[in-house]
Amino acid sequence: MNNLRDEGEIKFRLTLKRAPAPEQNQVIAIEKWRALFYRLSLVGEYPTEKIGYGNLSYRLHRNTFVITGSQTGHLPHLQTHHYTKVIECDLKRGSVTAEGLIPPSSESLTHYGIYLANPSIQCIFHVHHQSLRQMLKNRKIDSINEDVAYGSQDMANAVANLLDKKNSGIFLIKGQEDGIISFGMTVEDTGKNILDIYRQLAVRQ
Ligand SMILES: [Zn+2]
Prior knowledge:
This protein has a single domain, classed as 3-Layer(aba) Sandwich (L-fuculose-1-phosphate Aldolase). It contains five helices and eleven strands, in the order βαββββββαβαβαββα. It has helices at residues 24-39, 108-117, 130-138, 153-162, 187-204, and strands at 13-18, 44-46, 51-53, 55-61, 64-68, 83-90, 95-100, 123-128, 143-144, 169-173, 179-184. Residues 1-5 have low confidence and may be disordered. Residues 7, 53, 107, 126, 128, 176, 179 line the site of zinc ion.
């Protein structure tokens, strides 16, 4: 099975508690970036497989966060009900508890592992882009192994090593062929990390 196309599928045990959608003010800042990323095809849907890619999240308090819902990649704009609140995760058991109207992104545990690794990180954007990814790979940007991706205690440890004293930046998950992860202390920083490299790519082409 191709890892790249594999990611729409939820691999954790999900408990979805029916609850109102997140508040507008909890998602508006990341939605602004998502709309831009959609236009740049950093978020979207693989046309043949009809599988969405790209997910964005924002920490609310402690280790709870709002995240884009599963299978929303094809939508140019998201409403609040397309976002879900992740309220509890267990990496050992591979379980996620969320509140909202739709299942959270299939990569929720990866986001959780990053928030857990560094309390200063407030925001995580995970995008896909083949040539951007290639450019970063050539630059030997930090990466973690595919076998620890998708949320696990091993992933959390790998991420913790990577993010030690690092509050903003970019890394790759090996094996997720197009995947790029940006993290930051503000939504703006997190978005700009990606936009900066995207501009560099545009200049090269
Ligand atoms: Zn991905």
